[in-house]
Amino acid sequence: EIEVVGFASGELLRRTAFGVAVPEVDFVASASPQVLAARLQGRPLAPAGGGAAVGSLQLWEPKKLQKAAVRFCTDRLVGNGAFKFRRSAFRGQEPKVTLLAPASLGIFDQALPIDFWVNSST
Length: 122
Description:
This protein is of the alpha+beta class. The chain has two helices and five strands. The chain has helices at 33-40, 62-79, and strands at 3-8, 25-30, 84-89, 96-101, 112-118. Strands 1-2-5-4-3 form a five-stranded mixed beta sheet, with helices on one face. The mean pLDDT is 80.
């Protein structure tokens, strides 16, 4: 239904001065628009072209649905205290957020910045 894949684009052991600012790890969640709409049902979204909200998420533009999914996942990841929010980038072609995975999660011995995407081809 939803597939999540992680990619490392550099050597995590070779930390640079900007190691906490520049993510070298990407997580991409992939799902069909129908699955995203079903999972996001009941969440407020801005409809295509602005205007009043309508009941069915099936009517939303794919980019709006993608952005809503990134926001929803970010709320869940940050809300439970597992990750810390760093920044978002919603104006580009592929919306994403940068999160910080603290060392206390046991993923890495230092805080690790990651980029999170939904249905991204990047």
